[in-house]
Amino acid sequence: MLWITLLVAVIVIVLWDLFQTEHSLLRTYPLVGHLRYIAEALGVYFRQFFYARDTEEEPFNRADRTWVYRAAKTADTTIGFGSTRNPRPIGTIYFVASPFPVLYREATETHPITIGPNCKYPYTTRSLINISAMSYGSISKNAILALSKGAKKANCWLNTGEGGISPYHLEGGCDLIAQIGTAKFGFCDENGNLSDSKLKEAAALDQVKMFEVKLSQGAKPGKGGILPASKVTPEIAKLRNVPLNKTVISPNRFLEIANSNDLLDFLYHIRQVTGKPTGFKCVLGDAKWLDDLCMEIRKKGLDYAPDFITLDGAEGGTGAAPMSLVDYMGYPIAESLPILVDKLVQYSLRERIKVIASGKLITPDMVVWALATGADLINSARGFMFALGCIQSLQCNKNTCPTGVATQNPWLEHGLDPTNKAERVYQYVKTLEHEVGIICHSCGVHEPRQLSRRHVRMVCENGTSVSLEEIYPDQVPLTQ
Ligand SMILES: Cc1cc2nc3c(=O)[nH]c(=O)nc-3n(C[C@H](O)[C@H](O)[C@H](O)COP(=O)(O)O)c2cc1C
After folding, report:
1. Of the ranges 79-83, 108-112, 239-243, 349-353, which one carries the lowest mean pLDDT score?
2. Is the CB of 318 under 6 A from ligand 1?
3. What is the rounded distance in angstroms from the CA atom of residue 305 to the CA atom of residue 439?
4. Which of 6, 200, 211, 284 fits a disulfide with 278 by CB distance 3.0 to 4.6 angstroms?
5. By C-alpha distance, which of 146, 194, 144, 138 is closest to 163?
6. pTM
7. Is 380's C-beta closer than 6 angstroms to any atom of ligand 1?
8. What are the pLDDT digits (tens) for 463-475?
């Protein structure tokens, strides 16, 4: 009986292949032609094991991912024999070793930093590495639970992403940054306007430490959030106040913000209503805009300055975005971070506005580079996804994430155990901080906040290198 069923199935497939008009391959090679599609679908999973070299895969190569996996599992992160990264291509960075490294016993703790010192409720944190915005919707309930519990243990913050504050963000008890996206999910009234009462409600939560207005994110400047219909569950529809099972597309800009003046007024308003530090997130596109923004701040007064700017690199990740924007828009963080820091110095705003950097800063070397270049704090999204078990199957936009991170499918999600993965999130932060410290001591500084551009060199032509200090010399504040 089984054989007859199989034979009938094969005949049906062969006939369908022969007479369909969509796929020429199947018309020419009925039945066997399907092997190509099967290989294509499975290739993404197997390529990494059989064919790709350690430093070859995109967006994150296996060497970097393995470092995160091992860090999160507290496995040994040392390697044997020597570097596999040589020879160093142009653009590679390396650090300037001191002949007299700091003894571990002389190392000091990272200095705390205070954001929004003039707010009613300033935020002081010691945490260098924090969890970047990923909404409940783009990632699963269990992923959020693991992040919030892990963040609590690691003493770092969790950014809610643009989907609003969910019970799962709150459950772990960690510090939260409440993000307000262009659709203002969780923060708007029935007419779509920013709601002061909802802002106050969020600000009343002690866990909510700051508010972040998302102008843009690195992967898709000029495009709002996209939540595919398959991810819009009843709970998420209710949280966002959107229809069930319909793709949710946020506006590609805040209706209220058309220029720097509007932006500063918007931020000022949120800070006045909430009493908490308020800043914005963006990817840099036009560096000249920073002059405009800084001049506007100087004109309106320091009270109007954002308390922080989260600068995302064009290489940043996303739950879903058009490839044309992902691949071709915005400055990468390596280019935009020194520009932003230098502009703030020029306009004497460097002390007032803290800089949070993100964009593939998932390993100790990249974190040290960003801190030395001038970032105050680091955000990572995909580093933490790897800590949660993400295998880079690139399916965040499809609700089919096999590791239960970026899906709302209950069966896939159940594979991610929040308690186990919270521990991995914690261990990832701790190991990352520890190895950042190791690089610092090797450079001869006691803690990461003492790093400067002179500690970093970049390989240029003929294998020689040049100090970041020479590429981006110290800025002198402009006289007005
Ligand atoms: C699944 C996923 C969802 C994201 N959702 C948001 C979001 O809601 N708001 C936002 O500002 N950025 C969002 N991002 C971007 C990240 O917060 C971050 O800026 C970017 O991925 C760069 O960090 P990374 O290179 O460490 O991933 C998302 C990224 C991913 C991968």
Report:
1. 79-83
2. yes
3. 34
4. 211
5. 138
6. 0.92
7. yes
8. 899 999 999 987 8
Ligand 1 mutation pick, 217, 396, 403, max ligand atoms within 8 A of CB? 217
Residues facing residue 309 across a β-bridge: 280, 355
Q: How far is Cα 397 from Cα 402, in angstroms, rounded to an integer?
A: 12
What's the pLDDT tens digit per position in 439-450? 999 999 999 999
The protein residue whose alpha carbon is closest to atom 8 in ligand 1 is 161
Does residue 306's CB lie within 6 angstroms of at least one atom of ligand 1? no
Query: Is 360 touching ligand 1 by the criterion CB < 6 Å?
Result: yes
Q: Cβ(160) to ligand 1 under 6 A?
A: no
Q: Is 64 in the pocket of ligand 1 (CB under 6 A)?
A: no
Is the separation of the CB atoms in 194 and 187 below 8 Å?
yes
- Closest ligand 1 atom, residue 315 Cα: 25
Q: Under a CB-based contact definition with an 8 Å cutoff, are residues 357 and 370 in contact?
A: yes
